[in-house]
Amino acid sequence: MKQKMEDEAERMLIDNYDKYYRLAYSYVKNEQDALDIVQESAYRVIRDLDKLKERKYLSTWIYRIVINTAIDTLRKKKRETVSYEDIEIVHEDQYKEEDPLEILNVLEDKDRALVILKYLEDWKLEEISEALDMNVSTVKSRLYRALKKLKVILEPEMV
């Protein structure tokens, strides 16, 4: 039974690698960091597979791990930036194209995850609720507030 679950997890990780990468990238906006997040997430999935109680939640559990790993990475980077702010020199490419998902950075981490899972990954509210361990009504209300916040930013003259 355990081997069967490991095989299924491995297959899911391989089959959905691009989705996990896009999700991670939407948080960190950096190719290498996103690759590291997916790699670390895969390690955590395999390491903690015995903690998963029901096999039917494997997919949402993996997404939750990717989201949490991305958030952990952002927190770690933020601490590093604060620790080294006196010596850090930030170089930005002035010709860099704007990322349309950049606007999502104004949202809190969980709200950003809601928007990404609902509108980019096309998840149902119930799936999001399972993945993020929230009530469906909480998912709806937070999603509504997140969209309202984005609308205010995108259409300030209409509010």
From TrEMBL:
Keyword terms: Sigma factor, Transcription, Transcription regulation
Transcription recorded as keyword: yes
Entry annotated with the keyword Transcription: yes
Domain of life of the organism encoding this protein: Bacteria
Domain RNA polymerase sigma-70 region: 16-79
One Pfam entry name: Sigma70_r2
InterPro entries associated with the record: RNA_pol_sigma-70-like, RNA_pol_sigma-70_dom, RNA_pol_sigma70_r2, RNA_pol_sigma70_r4_t2, RNA_pol_sigma_r2, RNA_pol_sigma_r3/r4-like, WH-like_DNA-bd_sf
Residues annotated as domain RNA polymerase sigma factor 70 region 4 type: 102-150
CDD domains recorded: Sigma70_r4
Family note: Belongs to the sigma-70 factor family. ECF subfamily.
NCBIfam families for this protein: sigma70-ECF
Record PANTHER family: RNA POLYMERASE ECF-TYPE SIGMA FACTO (PTHR43133), RNA POLYMERASE SIGMA FACTOR SIGV (PTHR43133:SF60)
Protein name per Swiss-Prot or TrEMBL: RNA polymerase sigma factor
